[in-house]
Design a protein that fits this description.
Blueprint lengths: L3 H6 L2 H5 L10 H10 L1 H17 L3 H21 L7 H17 L6 H22 L4 H22 L3 H19 L2
Helix pairs in contact: 3-4, 3-8, 4-5, 4-6, 4-8, 4-9, 5-7, 5-8, 6-7, 6-9
């Protein structure tokens, strides 16, 4: 299975395609969007991994900051607001958050929270632009994001070394996504 993941990440269509592009899409599609997009999935797992590695208040500040900024970004995106480098920022979030977990980077809490707010806002803008702009869709993607953060925190429970290896794997997968 470990050998299969890098190959799957090289398949652009199935993993980079997101549901949530039509007016009929709601709560379920909001949940599916972050789960079926490799960029979103990896970044959100990495937030949880980095939170575990950083410990202390980071355990809840990192995920909550990311989700709050993502929700604000989603509201902006639903109004048609886009940032110049939204997709680049999303890709950078996969690489940078994964690398931060991989090297067990312990930034001052406010610095990490600021970076996670920027990354969360970019993910939110993408969700808002690509989604139907409904409250049900927003609730779905926030719920899925929280679940992915918790999954990352849970994976961090396998120990510091395992969390660091997973974080490094996320960063490497982000680099691979840059070439897809």
């Amino acid at each position: 299975m470990r050998r299969l993941l890098p190959l799957l990440l090289l398949l652009p269509s199935p993993l980079m395609a997101h549901p949530g592009h039509g007016p009929e899409d709601g709560f379920v599609h909001g949940i599916l969007h972050p789960l079926l997009g490799a960029d979103h999935l990896l970044a959100m797992l990495a937030v949880g991994l980095w939170a575990v590695i950083s410990g202390g208040r980071a355990l809840y500040v990192y995920p909550l900051t990311f989700m709050a900024a993502m929700l604000v970004g989603g509201l902006l995106g639903a109004q048609g607001v886009d940032f110049a480098l939204t997709e680049h920022t999303i890709l950078a979030s996969v690489i940078i958050i994964g690398a931060a977990a991989g090297i067990a980077f312990k930034a001052p809490l406010w610095v990490a929270a600021l970076a996670l707010a920027v990354f969360g806002a970019a993910h939110g803008v993408a969700h808002g632009l690509e989604g139907p702009g409904s409250g049900a869709y927003a609730a779905g993607f926030v719920l899925a994001t929280g679940g992915l953060h918790l999954a990352g925190i849970g994976l961090g429970g396998f120990g510091l070394r395992a969390a660091r290896v997973m974080g490094a794997g996320v960063a490497l997968a982000g680099v691979a996504l840059a070439f897809v």
